[in-house]
Design goal:
A: 222 residues; mainly alpha; Cytochrome C3; 7 helices; 5% strand; globular; B: mainly alpha
Chain lengths: 222, 136
């Protein structure tokens, strides 16, 4: 009988360990059937959260910026894969993005704060970017705040020819833009949602409040 | 009979675990570009371009304005001849600015069969979430 008890205990313990491992693997399900026996394991706060507390459908912190050998796209059997830098190492000193999307890096802040010093010219490391400081306010339909498009932080990275005239005609009122186009990868969505921050955080672009008549209420926060 | 129950007790959690364990999801870095225009057919692993690694070192302008990379994954018809001639990746990967093309497996590092894509893009999530990694 004692042997039996031991077996049952072992099975229960295995179950507990397994479900604990499962909970970390299956962050989306957020299954919380880890047995109380794992209480001790759960104590260190430094462990990355497997489940996003804001929205269970978003990835937990622990699953982002994986090393190339584990990211599912790179071939771990390829000798070169192990030589590649790990995003986590590179991002550890960079400004963090407020949202839970993209790389989790605030690239504009990282550049402004000199955490990175990317070349503006292929050959000359000393060449300065030609920054063009002009905000474009797009008055939008409905109750959404107006869009303020800042040229300055875009020209820190890009050349005028990257957007004009193929993506945006440089003329007031000449560009019809909808969110449907953007999420499908057109207009702003050529970069935002592919390499720049995704459009899930509305207020990063829709940043100018307006009053009931639709007129701008106050100067937009830059 | 008793033995069977005991074995079941041990096996049940294990099989349940197997049932609930989904195949590992591809969690590559946001904006990693997989380029597989010609690689699979040529018997090479697809090339993976890590945007994050390059934007730490170069601004978008250098590749997308000066070197002429279009904003479209797979839209540039890059091949090794062009790279060796100094076009596209070869603008820097020439042994002077960055390491040169003899390091085949640093770029050609993708799982064979991975389709051309911008990994983690909104369009990918909305339109074709299964087009991420082979066997998915």
């Amino acid at each position: 009988m004692t042997v039996n008890k031991g077996r049952i205990f072992a099975a229960l313990a295995a179950m507990a360990i397994f479900s604990g491992a499962l909970a970390t693997v299956m962050s989306e399900k957020g299954e919380a059937h880890a047995a109380p026996a794992t209480k001790q394991d759960a104590a260190p706060a430094a462990a990355p959260a497997a489940v996003n507390t804001f929205n269970r459908l978003l990835k937990g912190a622990g699953e982002r910026n994986l090393p190339p050998t584990e990211d599912g796209i790179h071939d771990p059997a390829n000798p070169g894969t192990a030589l590649l830098q790990t995003p986590r190492d590179a991002f550890s000193t960079l400004s963090k993005s407020t949202g839970a999307m993209g790389n989790g890096v605030n690239w504009v802040e990282a550049l402004k704060n000199n955490q990175i010093n990317p070349r503006y010219d292929r050959l000359n490391p000393a060449e300065e970017a030609v920054v063009f400081d002009l905000d474009i306010v797009r008055e939008v339909k409905g109750s959404m705040p107006n869009v303020v498009y800042p040229h300055d932080r875009h020209t820190m990275w890009l050349d005028c020819s990257n957007c004009h005239p193929d993506i945006f005609i440089p003329q007031k009122g000449a560009n019809q833009i909808s969110m449907a186009q953007i999420v499908m990868g057109e207009k702003c969505g050529v970069c935002h949602g592919k390499v720049a921050f995704p459009v899930g955080e509305c207020r990063r672009c829709h940043s100018q409040n307006k009053d009931a008549s639709g007129a701008p209420a106050a100067k937009a926060k830059k | 009979m008793k033995k069977l129950t005991k074995n079941l007790l041990i096996l049940l959690p294990l099989t349940a675990g197997l049932l609930f364990t989904a195949p590992p999801e591809a969690e590559a870095e946001y904006a990693d570009v997989v380029i597989n225009n010609y690689s699979d057919a040529a018997g090479m692993r697809p090339a993976i371009f890590p945007h994050w690694f390059h934007r730490i070192r170069f601004r978008c302008k250098v590749c997308h304005a000066d070197l002429g990379f279009k904003f479209q994954a797979g839209g540039n018809q890059i091949n090794m001849l062009k790279i060796i001639d100094g076009e596209y990746c070869g603008g820097c990967h020439n042994g002077e600015i960055a390491w040169s093309v003899e390091n085949c497996d640093m770029c050609h590092s993708g799982k064979p069969g991975t389709p051309t894509q911008v990994h983690g893009s909104t369009v990918q999530k909305l339109v074709d979430p299964k087009m991420v990694a082979p066997g998915k």
